[in-house]
């Protein structure tokens, strides 16, 4: 399932369940339920009213008893707890783990201070994006990273292939895939005060992008101050046998203000924050420069290259790309993935990759790719939805201001 359809899917399921048509929901969305992988929290989701759908080979909650609109607003006002255990965490270890990883990603990994991380992109030989990932330098010989669920198989095959070649030349690097751990994302204004009840570590000293290994609710966890909503928050890698207890403790300590939240609201939150969804806003043929992620290419990497597709990417940095990712506000019905974008003369200049109605702004928002020159804020466009042209304006992202916790 592609992410741009999550919001519509959630609305469709809600309507059908409200109409009492649960058999139709089961037929349409759960036909392959027996084949789906389940996170440790699956039964917990169901017990709490989670509406489960197939996503990237997993059975995941798209929403709970509240609407996607309400869930989105509650995350911004209070907080949300997401089960993101379908994503793949892994560790690279060995004295050459950093030079090995730098062959595959655009980040200046060596330049990271221990205990800090960054968003990066795995590239291919043509400079295209294999996947985006948050990577953390735990120590000089231990890198922790999380890759997308839908990209897991190709990412692991890609890393393994290059690791074999690297080790054959004497490189010291090995890996461990953390299938014994689950991943929870706690996001929103109450994330830090709620989590503080469950750990002795002073979370006020942990800033956006930083990482710690510490005890939370009696379990040995990896904690990263990051997230996918634009809000302050954390991703918590917890041993799977402690995942349900930790989820219950977080909900309890928030006194019901932090709510379990599904993929539908996660999609609208990340769109409001102007964040890419791989498979929609990033693909194997799209470079990090075209995707607006130039900032993620380390200064040293720009000077030295040394990563897959560097020649293509460094040329785009010098000459500018032919297309660029841009944000849009539009009238009429919300734009969806593959909606055509035209200039005021009616000429096609690009297409939408993600779009929907913003619960926070009460406006239609979207992102997509347009020809360079048409990407500047304030540019008037037409967006084609169901055969009709509607007015749109190129708008700076994020649409909703981010609230990452950084030193003042």
UniProtKB/TrEMBL annotation:
Subcellular locations according to the entry: Mitochondrion
Organism, by scientific name, is Prunus persica
Q: Which PANTHER family match?
A: AMINOMETHYLTRANSFERASE, AMINOMETHYLTRANSFERASE, MITOCHONDRIAL
Q: Where is the Aminomethyltransferase C-terminal domain?
A: 328-400
Question: Can you tell me which family this protein belongs to?
Answer: Belongs to the GcvT family.
Q: Does the keyword Disulfide bond apply?
A: no
Enzyme Commission code? 2.1.2.10
Please give the Gene3D superfamilies that the UniProt record associates with this protein.
Aminomethyltransferase beta-barrel domains, Aminomethyltransferase fragment, Probable tRNA modification gtpase trme, domain 1
Output this protein's name. Aminomethyltransferase
The Swiss-Prot or TrEMBL record annotates one GO molecular function as: transaminase activity
The Gene Ontology biological process annotation of the record reads: glycine catabolic process
> What broad taxonomic lineage does this protein's source fall under?
Eukaryota, Viridiplantae, Streptophyta, Embryophyta, Tracheophyta
Superkingdom of source? Eukaryota
Reaction(s) catalysed by this chain's protein: N(6)-[(R)-S(8)-aminomethyldihydrolipoyl]-L-lysyl-[protein] + (6S)-5,6,7,8-tetrahydrofolate = N(6)-[(R)-dihydrolipoyl]-L-lysyl-[protein] + (6R)-5,10-methylene-5,6,7,8-tetrahydrofolate + NH4(+)
Q: Which InterPro entries does this one have? A: GcvT, GcvT/YgfZ/DmdA, GcvT/YgfZ_C, GcvT_C, GCVT_N, TrmE/GcvT-like
Record's keyword terms, sorted: Aminotransferase, Mitochondrion, Transferase, Transit peptide
- The UniProt annotation places substrate binding at 235
On assembly, the entry states:
The glycine cleavage system is composed of four proteins: P, T, L and H.
State the NCBIfam families in the record: gcvT (TIGR00528), PRK00389.1 (NF001567)
Query: What does the UniProt function comment say about this protein?
Result: The glycine cleavage system catalyzes the degradation of glycine.
- Entry GO CC: glycine cleavage complex; mitochondrion
Q: Which Pfam families match?
A: GCV_T, GCV_T_C
The residue ranges of the GCVT N-terminal domain are 41-299
User: Does the record's keyword annotation contain Ligase?
Assistant: no
